[in-house]
Amino acid sequence: MSSGDKPSAPRGPHAELENQNPHRGHGLGANAEGVFVDATGDSSGYTVSDTGGCSATQIIEEMGLGGGHARFGITKSVLEDWTTQS
User: Fold this and answer.
1) In this structure, is residue 27 part of a structural domain?
2) What is the mean pLDDT of residues 9-38?
3) What angle do CA 75, 11, 2 make, to 5 degrees?
4) Which of 18, 27, 50, 64 has a CA between 20 and 30 Å from the CA of residue 38?
5) In terms of residue numbers, what domain contains 18?
6) Mean pLDDT of the 62-79 span
7) Which pLDDT value is given to residue 39?
8) What is the pTM (predicted TM-score) of this model?
9) Is residue 21 part of a domain?
10) Residue 46 in domain
11) DSSP string, 10-78
């Protein structure tokens, strides 16, 4: 994948939304509405639309992030980096 390209993953409002709300950690995951929220349900201000249709799992895989992100949810800085790639 070239620098700045988004993955060729499924897109749209139903693109792999497996209710990733990371209730087991401190990171963020997309809820059933496609909003990235923390374990308490507070919005991060980012949606799956903002990420080009990508779920947290897809972002973790494409960015090559460590297992902590998969276990506990992605950080807001990861979402910021992902959405500002050009």
Assistant:
1) yes
2) 66
3) 70
4) 64
5) 10-77
6) 91
7) 86
8) 0.70
9) yes
10) yes
11) --STTSS------TTSSSBEE-TTSEEE-TT--EEEEETTTTTT--HHHHHHHHT--HHHHHH-B-HHH
